[in-house]
Amino acid sequence: MTPERKPVTLPRLHEMHRSGDKIAMLTCYDAAFAGLLDVAGVDVMLIGDSLGNVLQGRGSTAPVSLEDMVYHTTCVRRGAKAAWVVADLPFDSYHVSKEAAWKSSAALVKAGAHMVKLEGGGWTPETVRFITERGIPVCAHLGFTPQTVTSLGGFRVQGRDEASAARIKRETQELIDAGAAMLLYEMVPAALAAEITAASPVPVIGIGAGVGCSGQVLVLHDMLDVTQGRKPRFVKNFMEGMPSVRAAIERYVAEVKAGSFPVNEIHGF
Ligand code: KIV
């Protein structure tokens, strides 16, 4: 029998960041996988709006509704016993006003989320402050932000040149000052993410952002090789050579904790 794990809390995640104890995070969309991720030792589960791509077969995350996110958050929370549960605020659920952002965040918390994630930068620090001051912890997603893929000109690494690296650093500081309790960087150069992590008072999770972050996240269906077609360079197939899905997830957790995934030269930019 698997021994019961102590629930992962926000202070524990902050302590892990300070002590260099790596955080293993995966996306999750249902109760069955939540149970499996929990026993495999995953620290943080993200109900990502990537469910639009991986579950609904859409070409982008933009059509995902708040109702979709509430439904999947409810399912995950029924299966998750120990992990910290983060739910994405979907496109158009936090953009119009701070009050709308609060209502959307509250709906996700009522469904079982411990924290909400929004795609940060630009105008969002004020929204982060409003939600945080009212008692919901916020994770800010920077770098490549899938909800605005069209205005970013496609799936491009962000922060490669001096001006865009400086913008990401400035936006990071604004979000930290606004109370963001966790940061997530997607597709930024490993050196930039490592520099931000070293200076950050809050945990920094990376996806395609190198091994220097406080922790890593991948889309579950990508790392289990369920997703068909070409996958981003930062994805590793953890199912390869493994006897079960549980073993593949345990291998992911072990490699993240050991700092052996990702390898900057293979999975990084
Ligand atoms: O929606 C999602 O799965 C995400 C990850 C790419 C971090 O935001």
Automatic annotation (TrEMBL):
Active site: 186 (proton acceptor)
Cofactor note (record): Binds 1 Mg(2+) ion per subunit.
E.C. number(s) listed in UniProt: 2.1.2.11
Cofactor requirements of the protein: Mg(2+)
Residues annotated as binding 3-methyl-2-oxobutanoate: 49-50, 88, 117
Keyword DNA-binding applies: no
Keyword hit for Lyase: no
Alphabetical list of InterPro entries matching this protein: Pantoate_hydroxy_MeTrfase, Pyrv/PenolPyrv_kinase-like_dom, Pyrv_kinase-like_dom_sf
Cell compartment(s), UniProt: Cytoplasm
GO molecular function: 3-methyl-2-oxobutanoate hydroxymethyltransferase activity
Reactions this protein catalyses: (6R)-5,10-methylene-5,6,7,8-tetrahydrofolate + 3-methyl-2-oxobutanoate + H2O = 2-dehydropantoate + (6S)-5,6,7,8-tetrahydrofolate
Keyword annotations from UniProtKB, A to Z: Cytoplasm, Magnesium, Metal-binding, Pantothenate biosynthesis, Transferase
Binding site for Mg(2+): 49, 88, 119
Pfam families (alphabetical): Pantoate_transf
Pathway of action: Cofactor biosynthesis; (R)-pantothenate biosynthesis; (R)-pantoate from 3-methyl-2-oxobutanoate: step 1/2
CDD domains xref list: KPHMT-like (cd06557)
Subunit structure: Homodecamer; pentamer of dimers.
Biological role: Catalyzes the reversible reaction in which hydroxymethyl group from 5,10-methylenetetrahydrofolate is transferred onto alpha-ketoisovalerate to form ketopantoate.
Family: Belongs to the PanB family.
Name the UniProt record assigns to this protein: 3-methyl-2-oxobutanoate hydroxymethyltransferase
Lineage: Bacteria, Pseudomonadati, Pseudomonadota, Betaproteobacteria, Burkholderiales
